[in-house]
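Same chain as my last thread, 326 residues:
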Amino acid sequence: MIVDKVKWGIIGCGDVTEVKSGPAFQKAANSELVAVMRRNGALAADYARRHGVPRWYDDADALINDPAVNAIYVATPPSTHADYAIRAMRAGKPVYVEKPMALNADECRDMVDVSQYTGVPLFVAYYRRALPMFVKLKGLIDMEAIGEVRMINVTLHLPAKPEELQGTLGWRVDPAVSGGGHFHDLASHQLDYLEYIFGKIVEAKGVAVNQAGLYATEDTVSASFRFASGIIGSGSWCFVVPKKQAMDVTEIIGSRGRISFSFFSNTILHVETDTMVEDFDIPNPPHVHQPLVELVVNELRGHGKCPSTGETGLSASLLMDEIMRK
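reply #2:
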C-alpha cells in the first residue's frame, strides 16, 4: 500500500514516546501524529494536549478504526505487542512496533504470518540500524577498515536499579509483561544490530541464571554465537554489578585492527589498526527513533525499504529464546 502522507496513531503513549519516539512522527517529512491512545484517558488527553495531537482515545480499537489514522505505532510493553499489532494489520494499517518485538519468538512469528497474509507492512523499532554512529560503523565494516572480521565480544554489565534494591520492581523485570528482563530489553538491540551488519547468526548457546534474587527474571547471561560467514562472537550480560564495575563495550576484532564502541553509554567509535588510531564521536539526534521512522515513512510512500522488518525482529527474538533456552 502506498500513501501520500503517513498519519500515525500511537497505542501506548508512555515514557518512551515523550522524547525518544513520539516527536519523530511529527518532525519526519510527510508524516503526522494525529491520534494517541492510553488506557488511562486522562493521561492520553494530557499527552495529546502537550504534544499538539488532535485526538486521543482510551480504547485501542477506536484508534485503530479511526479513518484519519493510516499507520499504527505500538508502544506498549511487549506482552500486548502481538495483540495490538495483529489487530492493526487486520484492519489494513501498517505497524511500527516497539522492541523487543513481542514476549517470545512464537508471538513474533504470529505477527509476521499476519503481515504476510494481509500484505500489510510490519516494522520493528530497532532504531540503531539508522542512527548516525551505527551507520558509520556499518560503513567502516563494509569498507574493511579493520580487514576481515574474525570475532566480536559484547560486554554489558550494569548495576541494579535503586528501586530494584528496595523491592520496587518495574514491568521490565516482570517476565509475564517483558518476556525476559533487562537481557530481553537491551540485548535485543545488540543482537539485532550485529545481524544487520554481519549477517545471520546460525548458532547460539547460552547460560542464564538469577544470582541476586531481586526479581523473577535472569540477571546474568553468558552466550556464544556463530555467524553464517564464520565470524564467532561472545556476550556477557550482568545487571547486578557494583556501580564502579559497570561496563558497556563491544569489540570487533579484524585481521588488520579492532573497533570498540558502546551500544548505550556513548557515541564514540574507537578504531585501531597497525597504522592509525582514531576516535569518531557521532552524537545521536534529539529523537533517536527519527532516522528509522523516516525510512518507514519513505517505504510507505513508495520510496526505498526500511531495514528493520517483522522478519528481522523475529530473528532477534529467536536468538534470545535460544540463548535463554526457551
